[in-house]
Amino acid sequence: MIGKKVMSLLQNATKLNQIIQIHALIIKTSLDGNNFVLAKLLRRLFACSSANDLLYARSVFDEIPSPDTFIWNTMIRAYLNSQNPQESMSLFFQMRHQECIPIDSYSLSLVIQACGRLKDPGNGQKLHTQVLKIGLGSDLFVETALIEMYAKFGDIEIARNILDEMAHPDLVPYNVLLAEYVRVGEINLAHDLFDRMPERDLVSWNTMIHGHASLGDVGTAKKLFDRTCERDLISWSSMIAAYAKARQSNEALRLFHEMQLANVLPDKVTMVSVLSACGDVGALGMGKMIHECIERNRIEIDLKLGTSLVDMYAKCGDIDNSLRVFNGMNNRDVFAWSAMIMGLANHGFGELALDHFSKMISEDIKPNDVTFIGVLSACSHIGLVDEGWTYFTSMSKVYDVSPKIEHYGCVVDILGRAGRLQEAMELIKSMPFAPDAIVWRALLGACRIYKNVEIAEEATVNLLELEPHVDGNYVLLSNIYSQAKEWDKVVNVRRMMKNINIQKVPGSSSIEVDNAVHEFVAGDQSHPESKKILRMLSEITARLKANGYAPLTASVLQDFDEKEKENALAHHSEKLAIAFGLLSTAPGSTIRIVKNLRVCDDCHIAIKLISRTYKRRIIVRDRNRFHHFVNGSCSCKDYW
DNA sequence: GTAGGGTTAG
């Protein structure tokens, strides 16, 4: 009677604390010898709880006086599902030591899976032999587990043979092998198998979508996605993740919208990809909406979701919320720390970024190469040369992380920004990597700050050899010449660009107002409120001029007269976006702009003045970093 | 028992 009541209570329990109460009731009513009830309790526990609560389940398990095979298997599977195959295996061996508990084929299939995930061929082969000896060689679950195990060992041929020789395979072993082909990047073998499967279910289709996406082939992934007659949460999530990973972020967001129209509810895995797309395009409003949705639905913020929130807020210019989410996370791994350090560095909060690095080390989290990119960027953005060197040399000496070209790039940037151009050049020549365009451009950028034409020319020769068709490289060089008033050389650069037919990447700036993103390119008149915006812009220019602003016409590359140059500067995309922002947001509120290229010198000067004249905090994300313009000055201290 | 998610130089 009581047993029945407890079973029904368990059936309806959805929260961990409910289950804990029911557990107390079980003990009180002496039902704790009833393995049937206890197995139900454990299963509900796993269904309702997160991996962190596995400890509680384990304590329940440890208290069970005489657990049967079913209960052992339930516990072994729980560890397997929570990415702890080591504990699964060790429980299996404990179970085997107790002779009164029979091991069934399911126990074996679980431990075989654990061997695969642990890459333990020693035990794996022993188990395979044992399975054959006791005549379980043609058990469906065992064979499926063997396929997964051998594939994980890298013996995918053996896995394939097992599948081929199975008498009555269902879809699962096919899907397992399919996923393994995808995991090792064998998309052609996956396709062969997919084509000759007796039938395909959603798992098969979703695996193929992910398979193409993971190789960067979003086109084929989308074709498969469009061909599926039925789509579930995982199909949508896979496709959204594919776009997010390929940095086709607007497409990812569009598909997310479509998913909602199709009435498919997103889960935390979907949210991670959507947040990463938001971060990429700087869609703060959308990102915030997702965050609210997570809180409203009490979705657990795990490491990956937490990291993507931290990253999204930082990339959308809202470093306060980024820090808030980071501080609220209950544990943080190297990804979470690196995202936070990187975010702080990009916002120019170098000291805080380095504090976070120290804290990470004191919490025994081992930094990786990405962490050091954040640390070195932090040093470079605030001009810490000696500290930068110390971190750089500590990478391999103290933390066993070997520097990559990215790290040398950061150090070149650190030296260059500090004006130590000759040392930067020497480092480029002595580093154990062939210098890439990014390294040379970093040096060239430093030459622009320090007006060093000589080193600029040497950097340019190398840069143009690697990237002859990137307009930004010529723009940088031309700016250096015009600063040095070497006008004939400016003309020469212009001629070079004309001769080899440079493709110009148009500068564009976007601003989000009321959850809608408005994008502007230079001279843009396509916005519905274009007339108002242009009127606002001339008012802004007039007010700035009254405050001493003189347009930097020398940095205009086109062959215009003075008036035309001034006009071109005045209609740069960031100025249009800011004019629109001033018109359409509340007085005193922060204006956030996302630009695809770097801000030009003239715009940087103008935005500083706008922040003072119009009493607005203006946060601009450019290609490299954030600029916080407040009351006439910029957080980058004109050091960018 | 099988499928989807996070940090990366300028």
Automatic annotation (TrEMBL):
Entry-linked PANTHER family: OS07G0636900 PROTEIN (PTHR47926:SF344), PENTATRICOPEPTIDE REPEAT-CONTAINING PROTEIN (PTHR47926)
Family in the record: Belongs to the PPR family. PCMP-H subfamily.
InterPro entries: DYW_dom (IPR032867), E2_motif (IPR046849), E_motif (IPR046848), PPR_At4g14850-like_plant (IPR046960), PPR_rpt (IPR002885), TPR-like_helical_dom_sf (IPR011990)
Domain DYW: 548-640
Keyword entries, A-Z: Repeat
GO MF term (any one): zinc ion binding
Coiled coil: none
Organism: Vitis vinifera
PPR repeat coordinates: 68-102, 170-204, 232-266, 333-367
The protein, known as: DYW domain-containing protein
